[in-house]
Amino acid sequence: MKVTLITGASSGIGEAFARRLAAEKHNLVLVARSEKALHELCDELMLKHKIFAHYVVLDLAEPDPDLRLLEEVKKHDLEVDWLINNAGFGSVGDFAKLEIDRELQMIELNISALVTITHAFLQGMRERKRGTIINVSSAAGFQPIPFMATYAATKAFVSSFSEAIAEENKPYGIQILALCPGSTKTNFFAASNIDRPIQVKGQQTVKDVVETGMRAVASGRTKVVSGVVNKIGAMMGKFTPNFISRRLMAKVLRSRFQK
Ligand SMILES: NC(=O)c1ccc[n+]([C@@H]2O[C@H](COP(=O)([O-])OP(=O)(O)OC[C@H]3O[C@@H](n4cnc5c(N)ncnc54)[C@H](OP(=O)(O)O)[C@@H]3O)[C@@H](O)[C@H]2O)c1
């Protein structure tokens, strides 16, 4: 059976992708750590849309998350046709004062898990000459961001990596998209210990972000920024030299994080 595997599906953008794709009759494998939320979502979507929905409770920041997911897929005789690498979190603050273990955990989740899981499921997609991968990156990845240094760097990696492998896999009929949301109303800020979003004006909803992603997949794009305000921000980030944008960001954020 063909399925769509979504990481970080227990809330926010991942949950919204699950809802949207279930309505389009995708069968689902949902992954996160919160068992209750996954269980309830699977039950609801199976009942409402008459689809197959399975969940896997897994901490993706632990080593070898791909092995458990491959095992689950094999056990239930599933084919991962769509993969949405969405699980992630961030941090803000003066890097020297942040908990290093948490920063490393972020790198494990935002980068290592995404790379490992993509590699694992690309093999089957290549054999079948078909597949879609959406890697949830961020508008934060367009430039270095002082006081959000690790998070912005993880998302720069996700975008660069996704764009590169998108080209490698075009001859195999596999589409890969880097989806770059800006500030979006989710649990992200609480989960990332951020007391208030840096950008509140123009915050998007999860539905806006998912719509952008779905439209980009339909039109065969490789990278998309969600939202007009974020598109303008990303363009400015692209055309403003880093030494200017990083100094501006530092100026704005220093008073908040270096007292
Ligand atoms: N919200 C924004 O403003 C924004 C902007 C740009 C990009 N993004 C990106 O969008 C993605 C989704 O975030 P969101 O905004 O939807 O936030 P969210 O509501 O906090 O969702 C994050 C998801 O990731 C899962 N997750 C976190 N740590 C995990 C772990 N160690 N193992 C497995 N799953 C884990 C969470 O589930 P459990 O806690 O149940 O494990 C949850 O389902 C992230 O990659 C984020 O960087 C968000």
Summarize the structure.
This protein has helices spanning 12-23, 35-49, 65-75, 100-128, 149-169, 188-191, 206-218, 228-239, 242-257, and strands at 2-7, 28-32, 53-57, 79-85, 131-136, 174-180, 223-225.
Assigned CATH superfamily: NAD(P)-binding Rossmann-like Domain
The domain count comes to 1
Helix/strand structural class: alpha/beta
Name of the CATH class: Alpha Beta
- What is the rounded distance between the termini? 56 Å
Please give a structural write-up.
Helix 4 (100-128) packs parallel to helix 5 (149-169). The protein has helices at residues 12-23, 35-49, 65-75, 100-128, 149-169, 188-191, 206-218, 228-239, 242-257; strands spanning 2-7, 28-32, 53-57, 79-85, 131-136, 174-180, 223-225. It has a 7-stranded parallel beta sheet with strand order 3-2-1-4-5-6-7, sandwiched between helices. The model has no long low-confidence stretch (mean pLDDT 95). The chain contains 9 helices and 7 strands, in the order βαβαβαβαβαβααβαα. Helix 4 links the parallel strand 4 and strand 5 (131-136). The chain has a single domain (2-257), classed as NAD(P)-binding Rossmann-like Domain (Rossmann fold). By secondary structure, the protein is of the alpha/beta class. The structure holds NADP nicotinamide-adenine-dinucleotide phosphate (NAP). Residues 8-14, 32-34, 59-61, 86-90, 109, 136, 138, 181, 183-184, 186-188, 191 line the site of NADP nicotinamide-adenine-dinucleotide phosphate. NADP nicotinamide-adenine-dinucleotide phosphate (NAP) binds next to helix 1 and helix 6.
